Amino acid sequence: MDRTELSPPPKITSGTGHRAWVKSTHWIGTVSFFLLVFSGFVILMAHPRLYWGEVGNDLTPALFELPISKNYQHGGWEKSSPFFNYAGSPVSSSRTFNIFNQNGWGRSLHFLSAWLLVFTGTIYLIFGVFSGHFRRNLFPNGREFSWKVFAADIAAHFRMNVLSVVYGPQYGLLQKLTYLGVLFFLLPVIVLTGLTMSPAVTAAYPFLLKVFFGAQSARTIHFFATTLLVIFLLVHVVMIIRTGFKEHIRAMTFGKISIKKS
């Protein structure tokens, strides 16, 4: 079944694209996300080990390590010694070489960018609810919400049988579900796991440590949620290029678009 047969696009010959608040929050959110990914990568370079549970450091077993800096499996330790005389006691040791640890600026930029994203996301959420944007453009209607339509939409994307130019915010079912997953699951998870890594925040709201199984688990979940968002961004950019890069950029910047059907 062809995607266009399931939800035929309107015969629009011109339009104004997206609303101004959608464009502004889209680009501010995009810039803050790029800054978060860049600064987050620098932070991860300083400690490329991820754990599960409450605590984790260079002397405790890691869930896995990432080969992204010279700190990866450096193994440069003097023989460790326990603090106390019982099994499982905390241990101490000294490094035998200098590690990469120039990430103070990265942490400052990460926190600043995070609050910018939260502020922008809150504005988008408020406008999205009260303008009817979510209900009108993102939530699937009764006719769309079926496995048959969903499977047909996925098949259409694999065949690249999608609209070749911009129709504004008139999304297919797969796009709607993807955007809803990003907006109402991945981004909240990113924010909440980020807050869970802050001792000051968890001192005031300790339930966050239980929700995410500890500060180190929150850090690992934060990493995987970010990875999914980066994959979403890459697919998003590829689809923009394949379906009319200039038209999409024009619709998401200056507003005036010329629309035709493939």
Q: Got a strand count?
A: 6
Compute the average pLDDT: 84
- Helix and strand content put the structural class at mainly alpha
Radius of gyration over C-alpha positions, nearest whole angstrom = 23 Å
At a glance:
This protein is mainly alpha-helical. It has ten helices and six strands; from the N terminus they run H-E-H-E-E-E-E-H-H-H-H-H-H-H-H-E. Its main location: membrane.
Based on the model shown, name its key terms:
6 strands, two-stranded antiparallel ribbon, 262 residues, 10 helices
Task: Describe it.
This protein is mainly alpha-helical. It has 10 helices and 6 strands. It has helices spanning 3-6, 20-46, 104-130, 133-138, 147-158, 173-196, 199-204, 207-211, 215-242, 245-251, and strands spanning 14-15, 49-50, 64-65, 81-82, 91-92, 257-258. The strands form 3 sheets. It has a two-stranded antiparallel sheet with strand order 1-6. A two-stranded antiparallel sheet has the order 2-3. A two-stranded antiparallel sheet has the order 4-5. β4 and β5 form a beta hairpin. The radius of gyration is 23 Å and the shape is elongated. The two termini are 17 Å apart.
